[in-house]
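Continuing from yesterday's entry. The apo prediction looked reasonable, so today I'm repeating it with flavin-adenine dinucleotide included to see how the binding region is handled. Same sequence as before; SMILES copied from the compound registry.
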Amino acid sequence: MAEAIDLLIVGGGITGQSAALTAAGAGARVAIVDMAQNVGSHANAGSLHVQMQSRFLRLNPHLAENVESSLPLYLAAVAEWDVLDEALGGVELTREGGLMLAEGADQMAFLREKAEREAKKGLAVDILERPELERIAPYLGPNIVGAEICRDEGKVNPLIANRKMNARLSALGVRHIADRIIGIEAGDGKPAAIGQARHKAAHILIAAAWGTEALTRSLGLRLPTPPEPLHMNITEAGEYAIKHLVQHAERSITLKQFRSGQVVIGGGWPARQNGVESTPRVRGDSLLGNVALAAAIAPGIAGLRVLRTWAGVNTPVDGKATIGPVRPGARVSLSLPGDAGYTLGPIVGRSAAEQILGLPSQIDPTPFAPNRWYD
Ligand SMILES: Cc1cc2nc3c(=O)[nH]c(=O)nc-3n(C[C@H](O)[C@H](O)[C@H](O)COP(=O)(O)OP(=O)(O)OC[C@H]3O[C@@H](n4cnc5c(N)ncnc54)[C@H](O)[C@@H]3O)c2cc1C
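Holo prediction written out below.
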């Protein structure tokens, strides 16, 4: 007979894995069931975001309040990455700060106003004019007139983090089950995740990113999780110069270097996807536009060859995390970062597991309760 499971986690990306780490670390018997499709955590750029991302605000002005009210969670999230870096034995985490660049007076005004709002939420932000900026970021091109710096921001190497996380979970005895879950049974008894097999557990945590919508419909939630297929690039190694996480006040870009010297270029250029479960494909115009913009921002990288491009699926939802039981006291819970999911995944996963196990919580999860999704 299969061993009983205390916590079954549907979805084995960074959020589900972080929940598993917390729960298994506290002695629970944990299994992760995953269909290994469009894992955002395997496609992402490793940016640790804290300041409000201009791209999200531009695309979703009606959700600005959700992002702004979540800023303390972002601070807790980067602190959680510090803990994870230590616990996993190093994931190339650096926190040299993040720059959001401006190319004119309008963009500087936007950044000033944004920085004021962020400072009120406790973020370590400043506005830098060109001379000051040039001292810390001499790699920037001549069109950049200034920037907002958020000193809380940083980066990790997700290839290292994912590998070390997998090894740690295996060492803790977390079981991995390959299955595509098509429904959740949440009756009075033990809940079950239904796939090719029926997986029962004392508690189920849904950490399925884009797959969450389909799994929560029958639980009485209307929680839209449309996939957002995005483009990424990585270059050959150059001199290690871009130590910040670099973004732009108006244009879609994230730019940084791994310690290897490879430049990671992304930031929201679209990829092609044909249906929620299909594998996204790279678009040529995204490849060219994304790297051309990167070279204009940091001309020193223009000679580096792009080694690899890929497409992955992001799940931004409403810019606010969803954490907790689907109904008070229910034995099915949710953990959905809401945006910047690789940054937020560890704190969101941990918090969901802490609630399930009745452990003291690192954060107050009340604002993130699933009740805003009740049908
Ligand atoms: C190109 C790209 C770059 C990004 N860059 C960054 C970045 O730099 N910084 C940042 O903070 N965020 C970034 N993100 C966002 C981030 O990667 C994701 O939000 C984050 O990884 C989500 O983690 P997760 O564990 O919640 O979900 P995922 O990692 O997406 O995992 C969800 C899992 O659920 C499984 N699943 C779904 N449905 C089912 C089902 N029915 N049955 C079984 N399994 C199921 C999937 O197989 C998958 O393994 C980026 C995203 C993309 C696509």
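Comparison notes:
- The CA atoms of residues 8 and 373 lie 22 Å apart.
- The first helix runs from residue 14 to 25.
Will overlay with the apo model tomorrow.
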